[in-house]
Design brief:
The protein is an alpha+beta fold and 208 residues long. The chain has one domain: H-NOX domain, CATH 3.90.1520. It has helices spanning 8-21, 26-29, 35-40, 45-57, 60-79, 83-87, 94-112, 149-161, 196-199; strands spanning 117-123, 126-132, 164-172, 181-190. Strands 1-2-4-3 form a four-stranded antiparallel β-sheet. Strand 3 and strand 4 form a beta hairpin.
Length: 208
C-alpha cells in the first residue's frame, strides 16, 4: 500500500466496517481486502477502487459503512498517539483544542491516501474543510448522493474525541457533479462529558 500511496488505516477501517454491517458479504469483499494484503500492506488502488464500486452498488449500506469506517479511522488515529498526546485535549484551552482537532483531522486525510489532503478554515465557530483528491469520489457516472461521508464522520468523531461539540457535514461533492468536495464545520462549544482521549474510552483496536 505504500507504493500505491494508500494508507493501512483506510483499508483496515473499511474492512472492519464491512464486517460490522455486512458480515455475510465480508468473504466477497476479502477477494480484494484480503487478510494477507492487510497484514503486509500490499493492497493497491485497483482493489480499493473495486471495493468502493461494489459498496456503492449495495445502496444504503455504502453510507453506513463509510461513515462507520471514518469513525474507526478517527479512533484508531488517536489511539496510535503517545499517552502524552492522548492526554493533551484535556489540558488545552478550548480554542487550541479546536485547532488541534482540525490538525488531527487533516493528518487523518493525508494518511488515507498520499494524494489526498484537506484545507481547513475556521472562524468564530464556523468554517469549511476543502477535501482534495478523495478516492471515494472518483466515479465514471454522476452519483445521486455525496460519497465522501467517510471524511464527514471522521472529522466529527475527531472533534468528539478532543472534547469539542462540533460536527462536519458534506456540502459539495465531486461525485455528484460539484467542482470540489467541501465539508462545512459547526463548532458549538466544549462537550459536557470529558474527552475520550483523557478517559481512554472507545480507542481500542486498529490496524495491526
Amino acid at each position: 500500500m505504500k507504493d500505491a500511496g494508500i494508507g493501512r488505516l483506510l483499508v483496515a477501517s473499511l474492512h472492519q466496517a464491512i464486517a460490522d454491517t455486512l458480515p455475510m458479504r465480508l468473504e466477497f469483499y476479502e477477494n480484494w481486502l484480503n487478510p494477507e494484503g492487510l497484514r503486509h500492506g500490499t493492497i493497491g488502488l485497483a482493489p480499493l477502487a473495486a471495493v468502493l464500486s461494489f459498496l456503492r452498488a449495495e445502496g444504503e449500506p455504502y453510507r453506513v459503512i463509510t461513515a462507520q469506517a471514518g469513525a474507526y479511522a478517527a479512533e484508531w488515529t488517536l489511539a496510535s498517539q503517545s499517552p502524552f498526546a492522548r492526554r493533551l485535549p484535556s489540558v488545552l484551552p478550548f480554542p487550541l483544542r479546536v485547532r488541534a482537532a482540525l490538525r488531527e483531522g487533516r493528518h487523518l486525510v493525508s494518511q488515507t491516501y498520499s494524494g489526498s489532503r484537506a484545507i481547513a478554515r475556521l472562524r468564530r465557530g464556523a468554517g469549511s474543510i476543502d477535501l482534495r483528491g478523495s478516492l471515494f469520489c472518483v466515479v465514471r457516472e454522476r452519483a445521486p448522493q455525496p460519497l465522501c461521508g467517510y471524511y464527514e464522520a471522521a472529522f466529527t468523531r475527531v472533534f468528539g474525541l478532543y472534547g469539542v461539540d462540533a460536527s462536519a457535514r458534506v456540502e459539495q461533492c465531486r461525485a455528484t457533479g460539484d467542482s470540489r468536495c467541501l465539508l462545512s464545520v459547526e463548532v458549538r462549544g466544549p462537550r459536557r462529558d470529558a474527552p475520550a482521549a483523557r478517559l481512554g474510552l472507545g480507542l481500542s483496536g486498529g490496524p495491526s
